[in-house]
Design brief:
440 residues; alpha+beta; four-stranded antiparallel β-sheet; two-stranded parallel sheet; 11 helices
Length: 440
């Protein structure tokens, strides 16, 4: 009994301690590929594009199904006195379909191109969502790396401030030295607040994209694949129209409208054949037998109707409208192609500039690392020469601050370059392949 009581007391104490401990913030680590996949599934624009494909597929089926006879049934019961008017029938069944039309083949081709355009538009929408998710993911990863570097810089800045406070107190350094150290520490705080706000904003954007809660959302830096080597040659810009699904969708849409216009232009002076069949059972009490010899209550008919449209101003105007719509769609596709080509050229040139800036930042960071190592070595072992003074703690802290700042410059340079490269991958239709390469 005594041992059981001690265990109960221990459990109560443990529960009390756990109740006093603040809850830990749950961190959800999410890879880049998972983020993009969830964003595409959760995106309203992707769902709308999927519905567009379904609508286009149904439109194609509709243009083909006009050749399949339909079947309708009905009844028109009534009473006739005197000479019967109309066809009062107890039961009627009819069937109709298109037999032959020179224009219908063009309408089928137009619907096929419309379906192709819808599929390409879906692919283009998915790539745009992938770009948005990847950009937010990469920016969040960049912000967190910058915050970690600033935390390290903050430690060195606070140590430098303490050293200067002591030296100013004993009259070794002027007050301005302490203020400069405090300014450095305050600037680190300011930059960290800005980056933390940006990280929170990126988490919220990823929450809206993926549907996952933003709190504790953590990117996995190792899941971000290396970017492919992108050529800076303008000769590849002409291939963009073939690789960009948005441009391909625009041209497929224009081709669809041209098929429609061609079909509308053949509405006049072209034969139209329709199939029809009907069965009716007339009412025995409608007095048909009094006025018609050998009257049959069961009546059926089947055949084809051939018409030759000689002149129809409405159809002629419709053909002109369709032709104008096709020309407009073609012009818009050409304009989009040229705009993408110009954007691609500008991005390739920007990549060259940012790559050079990245290299400069990397060299400066390497120099600052060597300077920090040299100062730390002198601070520990001395200068090695009796005539050369060794490094001071102030120089060590300043070298550490400078090294962290140069490291942040490298992070900024890498992020600036990656943003442009991701946009170029999106323009050339390679963003999805890049995301999927992280799974290999």
């Amino acid at each position: 009994m005594y041992g059981s009581g001690k265990r109960k007391i221990a459990l109560v104490l443990a529960a009390s301690i756990l109740a006093l401990v603040p809850p830990l913030t749950l961190q959800a680590q999410l890879s880049l590929s998972t983020t993009v996949d969830l964003a595409e599934k959760n995106s309203p624009s992707v769902r709308a594009a999927i519905a567009g494909v379904q609508q286009a597929r149904a439109g194609l089926a509709e243009t083909k199904d006009v050749y399949i006879p339909n079947v309708t049934m009905g009844t028109t019961p009534g009473y006739a006195y005197g000479f019967p008017l109309g066809e009062p029938s107890l039961f009627t069944a009819s069937s109709q379909s298109l037999g032959f039309s020179l224009s219908q083949a063009d309408y089928i081709r137009a619907a096929g191109q419309a379906l192709k355009s819808a599929k390409l538009n879906l692919k283009d929408t998915q790539q745009q969502v992938a770009l948005s998710a990847a950009m937010d993911y990469v920016e969040l990863n960049h912000d967190l790396k910058m915050i970690a570097a600033l935390d390290q810089e903050k430690i060195a800045a606070d140590q430098l401030t303490q050293i200067e406070q002591q030296r100013v107190a004993v009259g070794v350094d002027p007050r301005i030295s302490q203020l400069q150290a405090e300014l450095t520490s305050a600037q680190v705080d300011e930059k960290r607040i800005h980056l933390q706000n940006d990280a929170d904003e990126m988490r919220q954007k990823l929450e809206h994209l993926t549907g996952l809660p933003a709190r504790g959302l953590m990117p996995v830096g190792s899941s971000i694949p290396a970017l492919p080597v992108l050529s800076a040659s303008a000769d590849e810009d002409q291939m963009t129209a073939h690789d960009n699904p948005g441009i391909a969708a625009a041209y497929a849409n224009a081709k669809s409208k041209f098929f429609t216009a061609f079909g509308d232009s053949k509405q006049n002076f072209r034969p139209l054949v329709t199939f029809g069949a009907q069965y009716s059972y007339f009412e025995p009490f409608a007095n048909y037998s009094l006025y018609y010899q050998h009257f049959q209550y069961n009546n059926a008919g089947i055949g084809f109707q051939v018409t030759f449209p000689i002149f129809d101003a409405t159809k002629r105007a419709q053909a002109q409208v369709s032709q104008a719509a096709a020309l407009r769609a073609q012009a818009n596709a050409d304009a989009s192609r040229d705009q993408v080509s110009e954007q691609t050229l500008a991005m390739r040139r920007t990549i060259r500039e940012l790559a050079a800036q990245q290299r400069v930042a990397e060299i400066q960071e390497e120099i600052s690392q060597d300077q920090l190592k040299s100062v730390e070595s002198q601070l520990t072992n001395g200068s090695g020469s009796p005539t050369t003074p060794g490094a001071t703690p102030i120089q060590a802290r300043m070298a550490e601050i400078q090294e962290r700042e140069r490291y942040q410059d490298v992070l900024d340079a890498n992020f600036s370059l990656m943003k442009v490269e991701l946009n170029l991958l999106r323009t050339t239709g390679q963003i999805t392949q890049w995301v999927q390469s992280s799974l290999k």
